[in-house]
Amino acid sequence: MMFPEAKAQLEALVRKYERLTPNEKRGYNEANTVNAFIRPLFEALGWDFSNFDEVEAEKTIVKGRVDYVFKVNKVSKFCVEVKALRHELTDSDRQQAISYAYNKGVTWAILTNFERLQVFNAEMKTFDIKAVQFLNLRHDEYIAELDDLCLLSRQAAVDEHLDKQAVKYAKLARRIPIEKKLYQELIKWRARLFNEVHAFNKEIGITLDQTDQLIQKLFSRLIFIRTAEDRGLASNHPLLSALHQWENKQVDLVEEVRSIFQDFAHTFDSEIFPLMDPWQQIYVHADSIAEIVKGLYEVPGDFARYYFNVIEPDVLGQVYEQYLGYVAKAVKPKPKIQQSFSLQPI
């Protein structure tokens, strides 16, 4: 239940918005929208923006974006993505908001330009964005639908009211948590590459252990590049650009990836990009590299995307630790027996 003064604050905020002319709305960028409308909205709902343990400003995924994570006892409850008053919310915005929450491991994603506020369950797997939409309120419904809006209040978060409402999604399949999904993909890709790299490069004397090490280094590089891209340290998304050019039959993807490795070796002081790179002479199918590169942008079988600047470093570390533990038990065939290699967990 809202206190009368909080309801009055919300009413005043709605009136303030409705008094704006179309030209005045166009003058509000995202930062101004936050300060004039979004922050007062959530403060009326009981959130303390001066408390870092309660409201945390996130690094932007896309230039100009303003994002917040709202917490109770330092546990993230929902992510909020803010768009400017002048911005009309699109499916692309909804995909970004849901992907953001998914990469953060947070259940609820909120997208708002104040004129409209939408709430999504980021745990549910579906190609239909509307299927995971929980609330869709216009500004003129904030008071009339106050009980719904109050599900985003701090007290409701403490009491887990929003989570209890999630039972309506019980029949939808849940997304695999980000760390498990990445782990599954690494294992799948490794199984494909292991046989391919070893079989196609025997003439240069590559051993089974060297094959393991090469694949491990390849994944380390690709994840490093994707993280650099999402942090704005690698312009123009070189991997994605190479993939698109290859799909349009403009380049040799393997050669393009090798070239990207060399560029990173000259740009970044990192031991995973040596100037004397063994991958410069390792043969592998372009289709295999394409599957991996594409899979580091798009979550397979879903509309969500990976944001490597949002995934917590300890989560990536956990994924890699599990991956290394798995490959340590690779089953190697006896000499002269032609067969593929399988993997066993420790």
Considering the chains and any ligands shown, give keywords for the structure.
tt1808, chain A, 346 residues, 13 helices, alpha+beta, 6 strands, disordered C terminus, 10% strand, elongated
Provide an overview of this structure:
By secondary structure, the protein is an alpha+beta fold. The chain has two domains: 4-169, tt1808, chain A, CATH 3.90.1570; 178-327, no CATH class. It is 46% helix and 10% strand. The protein is built from 13 helices and six strands. It has helices spanning 4-19, 22-26, 30-44, 91-104, 146-149, 154-158, 161-164, 178-200, 208-230, 238-247, 253-267, 286-295, 313-327, and strands spanning 55-58, 66-72, 75-82, 108-112, 116-121, 133-138. It has a six-stranded mixed β-sheet with strand order 1-2-3-4-5-6. α1 runs antiparallel to α3 (30-44), α8 packs antiparallel against α12 (286-295) and α10 (238-247) runs antiparallel to α11. It is elongated and about 80 Å long.
Q: Gyration radius, to the nearest Å?
A: 24 Å
Strand content: 5-15%
What is the CATH topology assignment of the largest domain? Answer: tt1808, chain A
In total, the number of domains comes to 2
Helix content: 40-55%
Number of discrete helical segments: 13
- Indicate the CATH architecture of the largest domain: Alpha-Beta Complex
Largest sheet: 6 strands, mixed
The average pLDDT is 87
User: Are there runs of 5+ residues with pLDDT below 50, and where?
Assistant: 330-346
> Helix-strand pattern, N to C?
HHHEEEHEEEHHHHHHHHH
Structural class: alpha+beta
Terminal CA distance: 52 Å
The side-by-side strand order for the widest beta sheet comes to 1-2-3-4-5-6
Number of strands: 6
